[in-house]
Amino acid sequence: MAMLTVMSYDRYVAICFPLRYEIIMDVSTCVYGVLTVWISGVISGVMHTAATFSIHFCGDNVIHQFFCDVPQLLKLSCSNDYINEFGVTGFLFLVASLCFISIGLSYSQIFSTVLRMPSAEGRGNAFSTCLPHLFVVILFISTGVFEFLKPPSDSPTVLDFLLTVLYTVVPPTLNPMIYSLRNKVMKAALRKVFKERKAYLLC
């Protein structure tokens, strides 16, 4: 969620302050953004790990998921000592809510700026810049909320696994692609690779 928040701020600066983009999003700002994402990920992981080790498990300890997701772990708890995990989840939910509000404010400013653009071509370029990221944000939040709020079932369906993949695998995979394919240097490199491959196949 922190990564999506940083990316939404980047899109906000690119659309609302295009002439000052390179000044605002300088190297130090990018480094601070990356450090924020990494540190938030480490803190989240450490808190969940500590809360998980405080839980006593019983039964066959079989998780019907391809990774140790919180709802699946809580199903295996045999006592009321999972209150620590609920506390961690509540705290991280609060942080995620702040990130969600930040993303919403960024995109409200973006759409307000885009709709005031006199040129249809300018509006199209602006929307093409931010809509792929907005799609990833909506996909991540909607599937994550559905996965965590629905009651865990004893016999997970294919839909459960699909939703988990959609919020854990797809957004991190799409993020680099969204940014890379909009980079002129990356586009030129891809064209060169495809031309060389085409020439090799024709030979």
Q: What's the helical proportion of residues?
A: over 70%
Strand content: under 5%
Structural domain count: 1
- Report the strand count: 0
Structural class: mainly alpha
Round the mean pLDDT to the nearest integer and report it. 76
Distance from first to last alpha carbon: 47 Å
* Uncertain regions spanning at least 5 consecutive residues: none
From N to C, what is the helix and strand string?
Answer: HHHHHHHHH
Main beta-sheet strand count, sense and barrel state: none
Shape descriptor: globular
Q: In angstroms, what is the radius of gyration?
A: 21 Å
Number of helices: 9
Transmembrane segments: 21-43, 86-105, 126-149, 161-181
Pfam family, one: 7tm_4
Protein name: Olfactory receptor 14J1-like
Membrane topology: Multi-pass membrane protein
List keywords for this structure.
single chain, 203 residues, mainly alpha, 9 helices, globular
How are the SSEs placed, and which strands pair?
Blueprint lengths: L1 H15 L4 H4 L2 H27 L16 H6 L7 H33 L4 H30 L8 H11 L1 H11 L3 H19 L1
Verbal overview:
With 203 residues, this protein is mostly helical. It has one domain. 77% of the residues lie in helices and 0% in strands. The protein is built from nine helices and no strands. Helix 3 packs antiparallel against helix 5 and helix 6 (120-149) packs antiparallel against helix 8 (170-180). The longest helix is centred in the middle third of the chain and has 33 residues, at 83-115. The protein is globular, with a radius of gyration of 21 Å. The chain starts with a helix and ends with a helix.
